[in-house]
Amino acid sequence: EKAVNLKKDLAEMQEWVTQAEEEYLEKDFEYKSPEELENAVEEMKRAKEDVLQKEVRVKILKDNIKMLATKVPSSGQDLVSELNVVLENYQLLCNRIRGKCHTLEEVWSCWIELLQYLDLETAWLNNLEERVQMTENLPDKLDAVNDALESLESVLRHPADNRTQIRELGQTLIDGGILDDIISEKLEAFNARYEELSHLAVSRQIALEQQLQTMRETDHMLQVLQENLAELDRQLTSYLTDRVDAFQMPQEAQ
């Protein structure tokens, strides 16, 4: 009777393993939204807990069958063979569920990381847009133009590491068919805005550099002219003081 009961327990255990495989491993998941992906992660966590909770039952079943095989070898050996098959299937199930759970957790982590990098770069783009707007309608003063140029250049020196991470993380998820539509849309919008603002910012940088160069050249010319006028004024004053006749002066002084 004990052998019959153990055989029944083995059959029930194998049936449970088969059902778990169908429910957790053979089901086709489509991760088209973050909610679907998050739900899949939580479901696999529950599956892992559910499978691991069977360890106690499996151990008890294993000990009982081995004990029976020791006491009644004739009926126990067949059960040991069946037990080994069930144990192998159970262990395979555990490994596959652990693997899938780990993979989904990694995928979720990848998605969260992508969002974080997008937030960082979006904040930088907002800052860049603000600095570009600040370069408009500047007062016609050298200091104001120079400050605006330095401010813009400081933002443009932003490293490209985050954008590299965004591209790699997004491509990894898209290649896996995970949230591909959402990620493609987000990356397309981000890249379009990045290209537009970057080109605008560089154009404004070049314009400010040219404006600054022109203002510096104009200031230099004015300074030279003022120095020449001051020297001429000094010479004329000297001529007047010395009562020099106009026709005795150099041509330029006349």
From TrEMBL:
SUPFAM superfamilies per UniProt: Spectrin repeat (SSF46966)
SMART domains the record matches: SPEC
InterPro entries: Spectrin/alpha-actinin (IPR018159), Spectrin_repeat (IPR002017)
Protein's name in the database: UTRO protein
Coiled-coil positions: 3-64, 208-242
Keywords noted in UniProt: Coiled coil
Organism: Glareola pratincola
Calcium recorded as keyword: no
